[in-house]
Write a structure and sequence with these properties.
Layout lengths: L4 E10 L8 E5 L4 E5 L7 H16 L7 E6 L10 H9 L2 E7 L5 E2 L9 H13 L12 E4 L2 E4 L38 H11 L2 H8 L4 H4 E2 L2 E2 L1 H12 L4 H11 L3
Helix pairs in contact: 1-5, 3-4, 5-7
Amino acid sequence: MSLRTVVATRYVTPLREGGSLPAIVEADDSGLYVLKFRGAGQGPKALVAELVAGEIARACGLRVPEIVLIELDPDLARSEPDPEIQELIRASAGLNLALDYLPGAVTFDPVVEKPEARLASSIVWFDACVANLDRTPRNTNLLVWHRNLWLIDHGAALFFHHAAGDFAARGTDAFPQVKEHVLLPRASALAEVDPGLAQRLAPDVLRGILDQVPDPWLEGDGGSRGGVYLDFLARRLQPPRAFVQEAIRARSQHV
């Protein structure tokens, strides 16, 4: 299913978390969304990671707020008194990314919430697959909404694409950073969930996700880089999966 496109009609409030300064906005469908600005520090690559990783999580059966493309009019900056936010809005004029706002959601607390082993393992597997650096006890990027666990904020995933060199070749990297994952202690079913999750991410599924990324966000030296992401993910999913073996090894040192 293609991503919907909405138009931002009102800037509601900034979310002063992290360096990208996302914001809650209202759109022309009367919905509230968490807007991720194309003009923020990491630029379009953070939006590519947000979209690709988020839709991969959804394909894995995990809960992610609806992701939409959102048109931003620079004139919205006129109602914002903060010069930094004004500049960010103007720098992000045009197409951006947003996630459905979950009213009343609370931040996941690993001391209080104890997700069952298969769910925890699936989330760890997913984050290791997309090389998501940002699901630690310091910043879980998990919400509890209607008693379910929801995954948010995947702009730090696929971090290899920020570096020079052959991004696709990094697909076989083990991702040792998984040792910091907030749910790793509860992920006792990694080996069990591995085959089924990998099967969900067939080439046509990944291609369908990448086809939804706006072409200008994928432009790099030599033209469109969409195929590079597909190559990276294909290598990532080729058995034996180094990221799964590394997660199992890291967990063994926790228990």
